[in-house]
Each structure stands twice: as C-alpha cells, then as structure tokens.
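Box 3.1 A note on notation
Throughout this textbook, protein chains are presented in two layers. The first layer is the amino acid sequence; the second is a token string describing backbone geometry. Keep the layers aligned when reading.
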Amino acid sequence: MVHSSRPRRALALSALLGCATIAPLGAHAQARRSDYLLGRPKATFTLRVGAGRPNASNGVFAVTDSVGKKLLTLSPDQFVGANFGADLGVPFTQKLELQLSFSSSSRQAESEYRDFVDNRDLPIEQATRLQRVPISLGLRYNLVPAGRSISRLAWVPNRIVPYVAAGAGTMYYRFRQNGDFVDFRSRSLDVFTARLEAKGWAPLGYAAGGLTWSVLPAVALNTEVRYDHASTPMRGDFTGFGRTSLSGVAINTGLQFRF
C-alpha cells in the first residue's frame, strides 16, 4: 500500500512553526522574569563601606592649659578613617521600614605637646586611637515607594528610591593614648611614659539620608550620609576629664540585597 508523504510534511511543518512560536515566547517570558521578584521583599540586607569623621573637638581631645590653650596638636581631621557597616531592614509598607544598623570605625592619630619639649629638646609625642561602634534601631522612610505590584505575585522595584532615616541606640567606644606625657602636678614638669585607656558604652541618636539604585530586582546600590550624636563622661584612666563628644558624620556606599 502506498501512503502519501503530504500529511507527514504538513505535520512536520506544523511542529516547526510551533517551536518557532514557542521559542520567542519563552525568551520573552524569561526576559520579563528578570525585571521582577515573586512577591514584595520580606527583608533587606545592606553591606556598606565608606569614611567617617568624628567631632573629636572637646573633652579629652581638647585638654587645655591654665589660659585655655590646647596642649596637644590633635585635630578632628586626623581621625577621618574607614567606616564599615551593615543594615538589616524589615519593610512595613512600600515606604516605611524598620532598620537595625551596625558599623565600626577606628583611626590612630599622632600628636605632640604644642609648647613643651623634653630635656633633649625633642617633641613629647603620643599616639591616640579612637574606636567607635554604633548599634542602632530606627525607621527608614522612602520618599517614593520602594516598588509596585503588577500582579498577585510579581513585584517590580523602582529604579531610584531616595529616603530619610532616624533612630536611637548605643555606641561602644575605646579611647587609648600611648606615649610620653607631662606631669603638671610636679614642679619640674617631669615627663613620663604611659599607656592610658578609657572604654564603655554611650547612648546615641542618629539621622540619615540616602538613596538606593536598583541594578537587579534583588540587588541595589546604596549611598547614605549619616550623623551619629553621642557623648559620655570618660572612664578609666581619663576619669574627671569632662564629657567627651563621640559624635560624627559618615558617608557610605554599598550593596543592598532583597529577600
């Protein structure tokens, strides 16, 4: 029995046309999938790095002589250093988010007495290190929604989201000086060598502003300017030196991941 090849050719042609139609649709669906997340994020995690500048202008940083002149050559700019931090955010709405933040900065500065030298006419020098570790809980408010839902499941992030934030917490601090010092209680102004330290915790408040720029649905670049306000009476070897400011400003940038 002889069978016609036309039905087979028609079937093969239909299959080829079907594949040609399905392939672009699949590629289009995959491309669209790369533009959104399955549901609004339940949390965000941000890793950031930048620079911080403590005030470092009063208390133990500004010890003066009897006429009010600063004894040491320390200045706030000497304590500008690297700042590392992380944030964990939990969105309440598209605009409001609870944020737990942690950061750390440390910098050593070299100094000497302005008007005193030792018995060999050499500077009387010290090394001063300040470490600050603020831990805070606050609210972040997005000036535009973080994103929008386009179906029951799909969520599309807005490309640029500026925000402001504020909150409170605590700051761990450690202040150390190592070197030579003048004993102003002695008549001959003796010079002695010592290692002095103060450390503890201080309450803080903060305010911040920044923006996120989405590069992928689950990843965004983050840039932020933050000011921490904190002060405390010094303890340890610096008890009695008066209240010292631990405040400072930091500029950070990093990556935010959405989950």
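The mean pLDDT is 87. Helices lie at 6-33.
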